[in-house]
Write a structure and sequence with these properties.
Length: 77
């Protein structure tokens, strides 16, 4: 299992899908949506994990997506 972060890189001006704890991004993409889909695929192929989308302006986590495993915090209702 592996967790991935989708973050904006101000130096290159694109979005990266980076495995948690890794130095370099696994892939670079023009849009956050493309990076998110790629990160979902990476997490799925590694047996599941969390995909965390970060805000472009302040890098805070704005959304998490559980892939290929039981969601530890499922939505109510």
């Amino acid at each position: 299992m592996a967790d991935y972060d989708v973050q904006y890189d101000t130096n290159s001006g694109d979005w990266g899908a980076k495995r948690a704890g890794a130095e370099k991004a696994a892939g670079r993409y023009e849009t956050q949506a493309e990076a998110h889909e790629a990160a979902r695929g990476f997490a799925e192929r590694s047996g599941g994990g969390e995909v965390r989308d970060h805000r472009k302006d302040n890098n805070q986590i704005r959304n998490t997506d559980t892939v290929g495993k039981r969601d530890p915090y499922p939505p109510k209702g």
